[in-house]
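Researcher: Please translate sequence to structure tokens.
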Amino acid sequence: MADRRDVSSWLEGEPAGRDPADARGHRLGLSEAGPGSLARLGRRVGALLVDWFACLAISAAFFPVTSDGFYLTRGSSLATLGVFALENVLLVGSIGNTLGHRLFGLRVRRVFPTTTGENADPVWETAAPGFLSAVVRTLLLCLVIPAVIWDADGRGLHDRVAGTAIVRR
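Model: Translation complete:
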């Protein structure tokens, strides 16, 4: 029979795999706060909304399905998703951020788990993640579910699989 301690253990303490003494992103070689630290949820959602509304406007202008109703709802939903995917692959792969990321002071960078005392490679701190990582990240982001599953550091599954993280600029 199950004991109360077995059931309630998930309510106590830090998420699995995270040491309470470590800050978010410490395992990835990222700073605890300020530029280069992992971006918080509010900024990431704000950037996503800016990107999505920009894609809605582009879709309504170039791929209209209807001429009545609110302007942003006139475009094709598949075209909106396609424009969003194209924006993410091209901009994240080449410069490391989208329009929304730029407005909210964020960027996407490659990260590698580090062992204690190991310094991260300085080249990866400023370089864009590249097109392969951007394609993998974007495909998973467009599926939505991987983006709402987070690890102990607060990175979405799409970022974890692509080997990236959204950090503050």
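Researcher: Any highlights?
Model: The longest helix spans residues 41-62.
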